[in-house]
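Quick illustration, no need to memorize.
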Amino acid sequence: MHPVLKPALRRGWRDLNTVQFGVAPAHAVVLGPVDTATGSFLTLLDGTRGPDLLRAEGHRMGLPDGHVDALLARLTRAGLLDDATGGGPQADALRRRGEAMDRRRPDHAALTIVDPVPGGAMKRLAARRTTRVQVRGAGRVGALLASVLAGAGVGQVDVLDGGCVEPWDLAPGGLPPDSVGERRTEAARRATRRAAPDRPPRTRPSQEPGLSLVVIAPRDGLAAYAPDPTATEDLMAAGTPHLYAGVIEGTGVVGPLVLPGATACADCITRGRTEHDPTWPRLMAQWRSGTRRQVPACDLALATAVAGLAAGHALAHLDGEPPASAGARWEASLPHLGWHARPVWPHPSCPCGANDRDQRTRTEAGITTTEETEAEKES
């Protein structure tokens, strides 16, 4: 291990004996008391020295025996220490990739903030290269979202869509102007490859990784706002997590993230909405029928925000951190763009099984039927 203070957290002295790591409250840590000699020793934690050399340096600086080990343990418990050589063989392979690793350094720094384990951030970053994500949709939201995932280090990003690129599909960071008239799928895949820091590790066809996640980002935002359960039957049957994202009229939607058998699915959404509004199936039949000839409303800034937020939720899931879209849908509407979450509850009559698990979880947590009823009213 080569200890290094996490450089992503800015360091400042609150007073002569107290150090604050980090600016924003979400991740800031205050450490104290810290004497002058220990404060000087902190500057040696730059990842170039192992524990033996650090002990020798501490002895040279007059620190008592055992002080260095106690300090390292204290910093580790506080989540402030990383390991410049940690993460395992896959992380070592990624470090050797020079320019590709340089492009990932901001992402690595961000991961060190959320992963308290020394070397954990590098392990997560390396693990991204082995994941495979499918994006269904290559419009203003889908194409940009796929490029962000690839740029953040996801090893394989597949994009699926039909038809050819239209001028209104274009967006900065997504489909470029010279792709108009090309097949949407091919144009989006090419843009995604350009965004990737490097090529994913080679695997044999028989060893190709399964889908870690599917992001459903249709060009028609109605399919994200009111998803058709039949469109994801294959994903539910395979147990594949999937996330919805899109823009419907002037509203951006991210979520829910469906974890089959654990969180509410598209069928749960449809059944719940129908209970609250019996005319909903009639409206959906009208809205889904026929072919829309006019260009759908899709504000560029809103679409970009949706793509970015959805990519963040997707990466959190891939990194093993359940995002806020698991069991909820985040919405923001023009012109004020205030994001808010709407809970999406498993439906008792849906065969997906999420309701049974949800009920067990609530029972174990001591949530009563009255509390559940009030929660439903609030939603």
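The first strand starts at residue 3 and ends at 5.
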